[in-house]
Design goal:
six-stranded antiparallel sheet; about 425 residues; alpha+beta
Length: about 425
């Protein structure tokens, strides 16, 4: 075989291996080479000279806190100056390996570096660079939160409504089914911070303002008990409702309530109610029969989509974050099983549960975990004595219904004497 053929095969082999290697990207690294729109602008001479002449060690050691402070400004740097530096420091990890940037401002900046050669649409970074990318990104997230809202650092809870369980026109419905308690569990909020509680046993949605004022009740037909004859015809003669809907979903300020009907021992979807609180003066309620359903039967609290990002929680204690445009995904191992997932307008992801690892009924707290769109945990919150998983709106407000146990010695036992409070957390 000629030397030319051998050389050609070696080149092909190298390209094949390089193509395989680019698939082994460090988790949470490749996706973050895009620009942050709030940090764009003309680059300063200090920034250009520093990154042109600095000794690069990002692939040889893990950065310290001192390394994350812009040395050409020092400790007096403003928040914006620190964020600009961190962004350049993070993207330098890829620029040093020849990454071809898409962002025009990053293209412009690194083109000024004598050492920069834009060669590849995807690059492999070593363990040091990967760890540094995650470290810098976490620092950026924390820095952006500082001073933005006091409640992000200290935590915040506001009790909006206090009511009773089970008695009187103002109380939330409560009853026992074959020894199991039934009570309201579903809470949502719209873009105007109006809060909705589905009091299904009383066939109504209670509407409150964010300062606790009771605005109105919306009548909905979601619950109907079976007659004695119907109960006798049920399998085993058990007493169950024949019409039952106790969970709401909200999308673009329209509320959906799937309602099921009991047939021969099983619950089948019967209809979906659509409630229009925003654009209808009479808060119109529309019924869609099961044969005409277009989306009320497709709601899945385990999946959420917002502006090109999809998040899903699985039964295997995993959070899957998908970038729909780039067709990429990352998998985060969760410490607890989670039941619902939400995404806010800044692409932060919230997973919620009822602490399924606790055997007491009802569970003593709900766990809320907040992640960046890279899968970095930002915060963990425990909400005591929830009636169900909290709801998270597009602004990151967390709405919960919590019991105030009447039985101090046995707070885990739910009672019609318990009080209920609606709280907003951040």
């Amino acid at each position: 075989m000629s030397n030319c053929k051998i050389s050609f095969l070696l080149v092909l082999s190298f390209c094949f291996l390089l193509g395989m290697a680019t698939k082994a990207e460090v988790e949470g690294v490749k996706e973050r080479v895009v620009t942050d729109s709030d940090l764009t602008g003309e680059w300063t001479q200090e920034e250009i000279e520093y990154f042109q002449n600095k000794e690069y060690v990002g692939n040889k050691k893990v950065y310290t806190e001192e390394d994350l402070i812009p040395p050409y400004i020092g400790g007096q740097a403003t928040k914006e100056e620190k964020l600009r530096y961190l962004r350049l420091l993070r993207n330098e990890l890829f620029a040093r390996d020849g990454f071809k940037f898409v962002s025009e401002d990053l293209k412009e900046f690194y083109s000024k570096m004598k050492w920069y050669k834009p060669l590849y649409p995807s690059v492999v970074v070593n363990d040091f660079a990967g760890d540094n990318a995650r470290l810098i990104r976490k620092k950026e997230i924390n820095l952006k939160a500082e001073g933005k809202e006091e409640i992000l650092r200290k935590g915040y809870v506001k009790t909006v409504v206090e009511t009773t369980m089970g008695y009187g026109p103002e109380g939330l419905g409560f009853r026992m089914w074959e020894g199991d308690p039934d009570y309201p569990i579903s809470i949502v909020a719209d873009s105007r911070m109006r809060i909705y509680v589905l009091d299904h046993l009383n066939n109504r949605i209670r509407v409150y303002s964010d300062d606790g004022a009771h605005l109105r009740d919306i009548k909905v037909n979601v619950y109907e008990e079976a007659s004695l004859e119907e109960m006798e015809n049920e399998m085993g003669g058990l007493a169950f409702p024949k019409l039952y809907g106790k969970e709401m979903f909200i999308e673009n300020d329209t509320i959906y309530i799937p309602v099921k009907k009991r047939f021969s021992g099983s619950l089948s979807l019967f209809k979906t109610l659509k409630v229009y609180p925003e654009n209808h003066s009479n808060w119109e309620v529309e019924e869609i029969k099961s044969k005409e359903l277009t989306r009320g039967d497709k709601f899945n609290a385990k999946i959420s989509k917002v502006s090109g990002i999809e998040a899903e929680v699985t039964l295997n204690r995993q959070l899957i974050i998908r970038d729909i445009k780039k067709r990429s995904e990352k998998v985060i191992e969760l410490s607890k099983g989670m039941k619902k997932v939400y995404i806010d307008k800044e692409n932060n992801i919230y997973t919620t549960n009822l602490n399924s690892d606790i055997n007491d009924y009802p569970q003593s707290y709900s766990l809320v975990q907040k992640y960046s769109d890279e899968g970095i945990m930002i915060r963990e919150l425990k909400i005591p004595f929830p009636l169900d998983c909290p709801f998270v709106d597009k602004n990151g407000n967390i709405f919960a219904m919590q019991r105030v146990p009447k039985r101090i010695n046995h707070p885990e036992v739910i009672s019609p004497l318990d009080k209920v409070k609606i709280t907003v957390w951040r």
